[in-house]
Amino acid sequence: MQVPLYPVWEISTGRCLRSFDVEAAVKCVAWNPSSKLFLVAVVIENKVIFLNPETYLMDKLVVQQTNAVFREEPDQGDYIQPERVKTAVTWKKPTPDEWAKGYRIVLEHFRMVKQVWTLMHLKAGN
Hints:
Elements: E1 5-10, E2 15-21, E3 28-31, E4 40-44, E5 47-51, H1 60-71, H2 83-88, E6 89-92, H3 96-100, E7 103-109, H4 119-125
Antiparallel strand pairs: 1-2, 3-4, 4-5, 5-7, 6-7
């Protein structure tokens, strides 16, 4: 079986920057518009996978900052996740193999995901 690839293209040159090995066909893509955090969200079946599209062309400091954000789980303090939320979505850290592929966090939902929005989409809709 062939593994689906999701390519990231540089619009100004039309060059493929990187391709990601993903589990199935990508249904939706959202790009983080911040220049301080490289992040792409892809929707695959019931998952939203956040990818760091790091390549040799990108700012190494921003790549490192992005990786640092996802390397360790944030301190939750006294927060207790409600049972309703636990059953709706599960946050999963990537395996070492997935990390090497660019995965930074995987959100697994209880049903199929159709789309994902960026903050830029939400601002434009107001």
